[in-house]
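Form 7-S
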Amino acid sequence: MSNLDLRHPDDGLLLRYLDGELPGRKARQVRTHLEACWQCRTQSEELQAVIGECVRYRKNVLAPGLPPPPEAWRSLDFARADSELAAQSLFARIFSPLRNPGLRWALSGFLRHQDHYAR
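Output:
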């Protein structure tokens, strides 16, 4: 007998189950528990209803007030990204974020902080 047979899954576990984020075995345990437990099945239905309300609110209230995107989303070309990464050396892949000004600023603060305590 599993732990889910002895206790009810919490809301976080139910949400991950409903979103399809649980690994196969854990998902089967939750599904089996929901088939046998009216209380948890009702809780799951209530969570789905709340999620539905949030989606409708976003679609009907928030979305109409948002400005349009500056340009259409382009499709992601994972094969191209993988080939570009494979062409870079390991050193370049590790240290390429240093070209990012925000990351460079954060690292400089960290290094300055480390240097202060090293003295």
